[in-house]
Every structure is written in structure tokens, then in C-alpha cells.
């Protein structure tokens, strides 16, 4: 009897599929696009496969799109996905999986929150239409290596009234598979390649292989890589800075040149920001510089006195007025020197003005004095009358002396010995009673 039990157990193990339910791993998380009342996403991975309403996750009503996402935490080799959808009761008149129509199942390395689905791989599309319904339990083959499993729909079931919109009611989801690099029911290690087809163990052929054709034994692409990929299996991406994203399949180095802003062995170094049309791809020397810069890497400033820019290599330029040297870095006349010259010139002009004024005053027609003590018919005709017993100085020299010994007057009259017309200088002693007058040439 014991022998029979052992044989039956061995037979059961032989045919038992031991793919792991990856949804039950601690690293796995679930998320849905919205939540109706308290029907949270976690209800779909609790291990309970009952399909009545209370055991199911449920997205909210009146939504244009509804999705449910399983995040495995890292890429796994997936074999199949099993969905348990809501179905209340056992009869045909009970609640049926109406909202299950026209859903689709994708796998991806990017989450469902991404705006587009171009990065996804489609495993299944339900084309069922009203009034038909899908079975509420469905097992879908999905042999891919991916991190995210996504169930999504935009279908609005006509049976919904008064509510509307796309909805998902997933009661349980199971994602069966192995760690990457394993295959078969027992999840054995892949042979001669890092990843392989999960059932047969044949090395994976990536979509980045041209014609998606590979060597079955090692997974190497037969016809090379699609643009932007390299390595024997075309699983590595060319550097983003390679021109047209082309690189050598053997080592990933850029095949032609870098883009206009990078240089170096693998286009990892950036050209100077002062380069206008890029730089040489081996050394980074700029083809040309922005205005005001020069040098091989455009890292030097043109002279401050340059009219506009300078020669890229020598720095020579045309100078503005007042600047000199090949690079216009030296002012011909410094500002301080100009200020000194202006100060001197101004001083000289002021001095010249004073001197001119002095000589003009010496020749000005002046008021003259008259001896009021004694009227002398032979006296000179005076232009203006002031008392001679007052000190009246009009001669500029006497004014500068401050305290002259004798009064001085300047008259305008024909005086013997003086040229015509001329000014005469009348000197008169301080003794008024003398009244003696004399004329000296001025």
C-alpha cells in the first residue's frame, strides 16, 4: 500500500507544473487605475479565487479607460496569465462578466501609467461583442520576459444602467513563470545563453535582431542588429550621442561620428558651449567660436577693444578708436590721462582769459579826475567828474599795488606828446594847492 502511494506521488510530481505564481511573491505589487468604494487592487492577489462581488477588485465607474497592473519588481520569464473575473450566481440570469468584453492583456518593462502603449507586447485581445460574454475564468499563454503585466479596457458595457464607463472587476490574477534565465516546468537554467524560451529552453531571439532571426543554440542574431542596438544578441543600446544612433555591433563604439555637441571615443564628452557648429570628434577643437571668444576650445576672451569678435586662433582683431596692440587690449589714451589733459587745458584757458582781461582793463576808457579846488581853463577836458581829493584808482596796476603814493587817473584827450588818439596818464601829487599837472605817455 505504501509503495502504491509513493508511485502515485511520483507520477503526480512528474506531470505537475511547478511554475511559480509570481503574484504571490513578496516583491510583487498591484495597482489599478481607480477604485470603486472599497474594492481595492489587493483583493485580486489574496489567493481567494471566489468570483462574487465582495471578493473582487473593482475600478471606479464613469471612466474612459480602466487598467489593472501587476508589478513583479523585476523582469521574469512568464509562461501564462490566469484571470478570474466577477460572476455572481450560477444561473444565466445572474450577473455575467459583461464588462470583460474586449479587454486586452499586455506585458511591458514600463508601467501602465505611460501615456502610450507602443512599448508593450500584446499577449491577448478579447474580441467578444454584445450580447456574447467570455468565460469568467480564462488562462492566457504569454511567453515573454517582462516586469509588468497589464490588463486594460476601454469597453462600456450596454448592460450598465444607470452607471457607465470602462470598468474592470478582477477577482484573482495569477502570473505563472520562472526567474529569468530559467525554463521548463522545473525552471531549469537556460543552456548557453542568459535568457531562453520558457518552455523549450531555446535561446531568446530579441526583436532588435534583424528579421528577428537568431542562432537557436546561443541566441546570437543571424543578420545583425536593428539601428541603435549592438552586442551579439543585439540587446545593448548604442550611446545616445552617436550620430543617427549607429554603433559597431562588436564593441558599441559610434560607427560614424558623434552628434554636433559631443566628441570622444564613445561620444561621451561635450563640446565647449562656446562652439557654434560643434567640434572635432576626436579632440573637441571647435570649428568656430561665438562672438567675443577665441582659441581651440573657444575658452579665451577677445580684447575688450575689438570692434566685433576676433580671429579664432590668433585673437587678432580690428580695434576701436583709442585702443591698440594686435588684440586691442591696450588703450591708446587712458581715461586718467585724458582727464589730466582736460584739466591742464582748462587751466590754460582760464589763465589766458585772466591775462586778456587784465590787458583789456588797462586800455579801458576810464573815468578821470578834476581838481575842484582851482578852475584852470588850460586843464584837460574831463570825461567824467570826481573829486580829486578822493582817492580814485582806475589804473589796474595801481589797483594791484593796494596803497599807491599818488593818485592816478586815465583820461582821453589830446595831450602834447601823446599820439592821436591815445591815452594819457595824468599824475598829480597829493598836494592839491600845488595844482601842477604833467602828462606822461602811457
TrEMBL record:
The chain crosses the membrane at residues 341-361. InterPro entries: BG_Antigen-Binding_Lectin (IPR051941), FA58C (IPR000421), Galactose-bd-like_sf (IPR008979), TNFR/NGFR_Cys_rich_reg (IPR001368). Residues 1-18 form the signal peptide. PROSITE patterns: FA58C_3 (PS50022), TNFR_NGFR_1 (PS00652). Keywords: Membrane, Signal, Transmembrane, Transmembrane helix. Residues 18-178 form the F5/8 type C domain. It comes from the Eukaryota. This is F5/8 type C domain-containing protein. It comes from Magallana gigas (Pacific oyster).
Amino acid at each position: 500500500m505504501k509503495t502504491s502511494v509513493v508511485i502515485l506521488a511520483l507520477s503526480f510530481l512528474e506531470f505537475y507544473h511547478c511554475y511559480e505564481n509570481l503574484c504571490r511573491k513578496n516583491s510583487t505589487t498591484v495597482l489599478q487605475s481607480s477604485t470603486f468604494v472599497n474594492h481595492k487592487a489587493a483583493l485580486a492577489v489574496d489567493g481567494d479565487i471566489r468570483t462574487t462581488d465582495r471578493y473582487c477588485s473593482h475600478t471606479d465607474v464613469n471612466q474612459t479607460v480602466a487598467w489593472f497592473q501587476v508589478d513583479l519588481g523585476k523582469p521574469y520569464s512568464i509562461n501564462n496569465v490566469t484571470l478570474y473575473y466577477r460572476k455572481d450566481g450560477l444561473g444565466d440570469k445572474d450577473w455575467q462578466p459583461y464588462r470583460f468584453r474586449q479587454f486586452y492583456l499586455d506585458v511591458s518593462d514600463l508601467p501602465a501609467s505611460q501615456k502610450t502603449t507602443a512599448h508593450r507586447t500584446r499577449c491577448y485581445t478579447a474580441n467578444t461583442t454584445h450580447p456574447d460574454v467570455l468565460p469568467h475564468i480564462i488562462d492566457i499563454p504569454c511567453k515573454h520576459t517582462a516586469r509588468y503585466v497589464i490588463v486594460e479596457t476601454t469597453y462600456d458595457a450596454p448592460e450598465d444602467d444607470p452607471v457607465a464607463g470602462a470598468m474592470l472587476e478582477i477577482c484573482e490574477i495569477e502570473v505563472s513563470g520562472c526567474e529569468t534565465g530559467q525554463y521548463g516546468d522545473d525552471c531549469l537554467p537556460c543552456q548557453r545563453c542568459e535568457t531562453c524560451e520558457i518552455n523549450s529552453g531555446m535561446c531568446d531571439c530579441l526583436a532588435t535582431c534583424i528579421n528577428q532571426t537568431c542562432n537557436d543554440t546561443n541566441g546570437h542574431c543571424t543578420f545583425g542588429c536593428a539601428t541603435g542596438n549592438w552586442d551579439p544578441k543585439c540587446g545593448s543600446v548604442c550611446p545616445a550621442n552617436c550620430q543617427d544612433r549607429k554603433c559597431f555591433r562588436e564593441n558599441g563604439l559610434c560607427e560614424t561620428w558623434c552628434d554636433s555637441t559631443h566628441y570622444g571615443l564613445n561620444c561621451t564628452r561635450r563640446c565647449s558651449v562656446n562652439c557654434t557648429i560643434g567640434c572635432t570628434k576626436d579632440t573637441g577643437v571647435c570649428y568656430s567660436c561665438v562672438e567675443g571668444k577665441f582659441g581651440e576650445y573657444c575658452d579665451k576672451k577677445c580684447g575688450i577693444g575689438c570692434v566685433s569678435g576676433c580671429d579664432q586662433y590668433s585673437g587678432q582683431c580690428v580695434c576701436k578708436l583709442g585702443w591698440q596692440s594686435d588684440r586691442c587690449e591696450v588703450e591708446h589714451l587712458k581715461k586718467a590721462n585724458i582727464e589730466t589733459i582736460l584739466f591742464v587745458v582748462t587751466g590754460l584757458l582760464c589763465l589766458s582769459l585772466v591775462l586778456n582781461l587784465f590787458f583789456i582793463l588797462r586800455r579801458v576808457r576810464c573815468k578821470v579826475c578834476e581838481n575842484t579846488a582851482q578852475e584852470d581853463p588850460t586843464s584837460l577836458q574831463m570825461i567824467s567828474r570826481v573829486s580829486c581829493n578822493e582817492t580814485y584808482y582806475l589804473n589796474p596796476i595801481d589797483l594791484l599795488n593796494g596803497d599807491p603814493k599818488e593818485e592816478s587817473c586815465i583820461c582821453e584827450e589830446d595831450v602834447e606828446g601823446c599820439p592821436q588818439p591815445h591815452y594819457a596818464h595824468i599824475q598829480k601829487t597829493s598836494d592839491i594847492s600845488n595844482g601842477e599837472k604833467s602828462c606822461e605817455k602811457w
